[in-house]
């Protein structure tokens, strides 16, 4: 079958959703034990990485992509894959922000670790700290080697933080620099606190023994992963997936195109060239039904999300409450081939309720069709989180229809 030189916007959406591992039809409620490690490994291998985020108003973000695609599963399964000793399948590093990444990809990030060791590719304050405090950093590394795994607060000379997200103590700065440089890695977590240890005590021996590709080959490999996970993407989309530098990405992309490993294609309504893999297949239909984490890889690149779905999605956590449009922790609702709604969710574990603090329909979405599907997905999420009920407070234009659908489900 010859590859298309153009894609309709509908076909581009289908390619993108399928590439992200969403099923061809909505998932029904299922036994969490039915989702096994092999299913999770296969999915994360397909995605390439899963972003970690600390916000826990609903559930930490990295647990959501598997739920969205595989249905209810035991959250401890992901913990075992990420922190289950030397048999672990995932490791933490800076991919697209802090991420869980398949361990076999660790060699593909060694060029980034080497640059970080030189102070390149890390934010300025940390680079300055590393340049000025190397004896202290060396001492922290020696302490981890002797006593690890350790949290930053357990260092003998941890120092005090200044408060806030980036008000790190000196010990935390030293450990984060060593983490960037690949000299330490995450052995596990205590709550959400990262515990640092030496890579040779954490990562599988086969991974550590794997040859190190040069930077160019590693970057090409990362672009291949991004292309497979996107299905169809512009140069900006591809480089954003692993946060590659513009210059590096453009060189590597040109090389992949010249080699025939990526093919240019025009997408209806897009003003920039997109790229696809030679084995591109357009699904005949998609009926995905999923609540998406605000940090889901389908919607990371906000411009691409607008181009694909016509939805302007912005993270409003850091927006003053009176200026928020959709709420604090807002999950887009993917229904079929479009984003049909957005819901502001919170887990109230004391009350045993999944709180829907607002529910908004997208322009053009039919509430009569969207509300029952969304209500079913909310019930499924509540069950997965161990919450007995869904409570809607009435905010948002879609809320009345969702309430009616939930009540109808209770009576049926």
Characterization of this structure:
The protein has helices at 9-19, 37-47, 64-70, 75-83, 110-117, 124-132, 134-147, 170-180, 205-209, 215-230, 235-241, 246-258, 302-309, 367-384, 399-411; strands at 6-7, 50-51, 90-95, 97-102, 185-190, 193-197, 233-234, 263-267, 274-276, 288-291, 330-336, 338-348, 353-361, 389-392. With 412 residues, it is of the alpha+beta class. The strands form 4 sheets. Strands 10-11-12-13-14 form a 5-stranded mixed sheet. Strands 1-8-9-7 form a 4-stranded mixed sheet. It is globular and about 65 Å long.
Secondary-structure element string: EHHEHHEEHHHHEEHHEHHEEEHEEEHEH
Per DSSP, what share of the residues sits in E-state strands of 2 or more residues? Answer: 15-25%
Arithmetic mean pLDDT: 92
Number of helices: 15
| Biggest sheet statistics | 5 strands, mixed
Question: How does the helix and strand content classify structurally?
Answer: alpha+beta
**What is the radius of gyration?**
22 Å
Cα shape: globular
Give the terminus-to-terminus CA distance. 48 Å
Poorly predicted tracts of residues: none
Total number of strands:
14
Task: Give the structure's gist in a few sentences.
With 412 residues, this protein is of the alpha+beta class. It has helices at 9-19, 37-47, 64-70, 75-83, 110-117, 124-132, 134-147, 170-180, 205-209, 215-230, 235-241, 246-258, 302-309, 367-384, 399-411; strands spanning 6-7, 50-51, 90-95, 97-102, 185-190, 193-197, 233-234, 263-267, 274-276, 288-291, 330-336, 338-348, 353-361, 389-392.
């Amino acid at each position: 079958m010859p590859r298309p030189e153009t894609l309709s916007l509908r076909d581009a959406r289908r390619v993108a959703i399928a590439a992200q591992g969403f099923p061809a039809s909505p998932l029904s409620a299922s036994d969490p034990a039915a989702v096994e490690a092999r299913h999770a490994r296969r999915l994360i291998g397909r995605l390439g990485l899963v972003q970690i985020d600390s916000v826990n108003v609903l559930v930490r973000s990295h647990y959501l992509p598997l739920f969205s695609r595989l249905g209810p599963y035991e959250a401890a399964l992901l913990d075992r894959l990420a922190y289950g000793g030397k048999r672990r399948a995932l490791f933490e590093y800076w991919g697209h922000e802090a991420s869980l990444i398949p361990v076999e990809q660790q060699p593909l990030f060694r060029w980034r670790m080497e640059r970080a060791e030189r102070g390149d590719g890390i934010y300025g304050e940390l680079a300055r700290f590393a340049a000025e405090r190397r004896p202290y950093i060396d001492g922290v590394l020696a302490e981890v080697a002797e006593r690890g795994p350790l949290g930053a607060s357990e260092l003998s000379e941890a120092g005090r933080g200044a408060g806030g997200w980036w008000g790190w103590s000196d010990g935390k700065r030293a450990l984060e620099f060593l983490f960037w440089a690949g000299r330490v890695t995450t052995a596990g977590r205590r709550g959400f606190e990262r515990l640092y240890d030496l890579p040779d005590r954490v990562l599988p021996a086969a991974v550590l023994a794997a040859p190190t590709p040069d930077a160019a080959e590693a970057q090409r490999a990362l672009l291949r992963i991004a292309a497979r996970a996107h299905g169809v993407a512009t140069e900006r989309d591809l480089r954003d997936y692993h946060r590659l530098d513009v210059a590096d990405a453009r060189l590597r992309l040109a090389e992949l195109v010249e080699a025939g490993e990526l093919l240019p294609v025009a997408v209806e309504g897009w003003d920039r060239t997109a790229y696809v893999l030679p084995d591109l297949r357009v699904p005949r239909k998609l009926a995905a039904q999923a609540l998406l984490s605000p940090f889901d890889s389908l919607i990371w690149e906000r411009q691409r999300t607008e181009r694909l779905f016509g939805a302007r999605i912005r993270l409003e956590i850091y927006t003053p409450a009176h200026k928020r449009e959709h709420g604090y922790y807002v999950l887009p609702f993917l229904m079929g081939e479009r984003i049909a709604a957005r819901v502001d969710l919170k887990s109230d574990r004391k009350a045993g309720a999944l709180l829907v603090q607002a529910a908004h329909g997208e322009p053009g979405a039919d509430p009569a069709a969207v509300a029952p599907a969304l209500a079913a997905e909310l019930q499924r999420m509540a069950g997965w989180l161990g919450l007995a009920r869904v409570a809607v407070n009435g905010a948002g234009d879609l809320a009345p229809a969702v309430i009616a659908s939930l009540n109808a489900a209770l009576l049926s």
